């Protein structure tokens, strides 16, 4: 079933000139249940020498001997366990980069991110900053990175974010929540092993899956859509509906949600996200609300923009008995709302994709605040 | 609509061990009507120096001033027009490589293939052989290429072959029709400009589109299928049905068939083709029949293997008033049949994908000859 697929004849770039983005794809991907056991073979030819370690940045959910025994460590390789309780931050990236630079006499052979969107985005950002001067916040924006990142590998352990294929790494900075969008951001290698998602708690599974679902809705209804993006978005949307509304074996469901995340990420990569993401960024900047649940908190109130998408979302919420927190914005001050509104309205390409070139006349600060007040 | 999607729990490699292929994807892609005008900007940073030309290998269908005026030539760049009347040959690759080596003091900056499967496969093979010793026939098979190919760009002008994303380049050699399958085969850059397909003759449009349709049927029903391959195959199949059985505007149809080819190619790249391709290779080896029409000639007689696929194929043939030649194999000798049967049965991964590990007990030389005799 396709929803809201208004293919408008706009081009896949924010300026609407007839220039198209030359889109970087992940050049190597391995897919399969148990494929994590092949990681050592994949990394071996990429080792520069015995002094240049691989740094594994891993969600601390996996901090146990059973997992460590499977990591293909050699020489001075290091595993850094990192909490994904909070959204990734520019200062956190800078600290990791400084720590790695200080500890090793030469640059690592590469960075391996293992986890959800937080860990994948941290791994991308660290690999960029290890090869580029300055601080992470200097690169938040579009196409500000000058030199290729260090070799970096992404291994998602939860499905939905699309971080495994995207050309961005979204970071909370001192002044904004914004991605480092560049051709050097995508991973050099992705390993898709659906077995990792066996241990994901149900709420997190749902929220992160909805990140993918919302990517598809925002991409398929956006003004930047083209046939490339549409074909990926439609497939990801179908897979989301199989997973969240269908009745399929749990093993197939894991496989399919992993592919939904992949295709959904491809779809937004060549178009853009929309209202839900623009608002969710404000929410997590001010309140530190994580991206997956933040999207859901926002999306439930967007029926005027995405009527069919919100109807499907409500069905999925019902089917899986998900209860979202209420009154999240109840006690905020006017200053708080101003901060969220400013962060959100600063994401111009997202609004232009969602509402067209005249978006500023449609989405005023006042209207946006009313939406935030509902959450 | 999904057809024959028997997801069996086999792994995506011919040996059925739990090792998975680490699949190389095209690392850069640009999509859009008119995007050919951006080729110059894309090539500029890839120029090694003014003595290292770009060699444009172009289907001689485009041998005219209007086309030449659009090719972004600089310095000593060269356009070589090549006929796609015949399937690409190993000796043709060797001759092109010798010609380029002789003419230029250093290796080219890169090879740009512009055309259908023939030109794309020639461009891939020439870029491999310019960086690897020996003859093209030495590399026909799986993973025999040792060194990376020269930078190479693929620009399909007709949709369906999947050559723009595949890790093979299929060549007629002195002893076999077989691909150079390797991680170095895929293009470094693909440019997808649907405008090129405006000028494709209707029969050719249909036959080449059916190459994609048949890829999907063979991938989705094969024993090598996994969820990765399945998601691409299903999307390509949907797009084929929109294009060949639906009622959509011609501009959308061009866009969608281009994406069908892309996704269909991705699907077989991580699984394998089947009976139609195995038989079609024999047909073109012996009779020089081109791949697109060869697939159709074979596929019409494969209802016992692909009942739903053949039924859809027949509907598409009817809708577009396609008349296939008859009696193609009527005058062949027993020796001719032996040659075709041997070529075809030599493609073991294709048969194993189609019929499972015990394929040799299912597809005997006698049974295969009976199928060829129907054509």
TrEMBL record, chains A, B:
Residues 28-194 form the Alcohol dehydrogenase iron-type/glycerol dehydrogenase GldA domain. Keywords: Oxidoreductase. It comes from the Bacteria. The keyword tRNA-binding does not apply. CDD domains: Fe-ADH_KdnB-like (cd08184). GO terms for molecular function: alcohol dehydrogenase (NAD+) activity; metal ion binding. This is Iron-containing alcohol dehydrogenase.
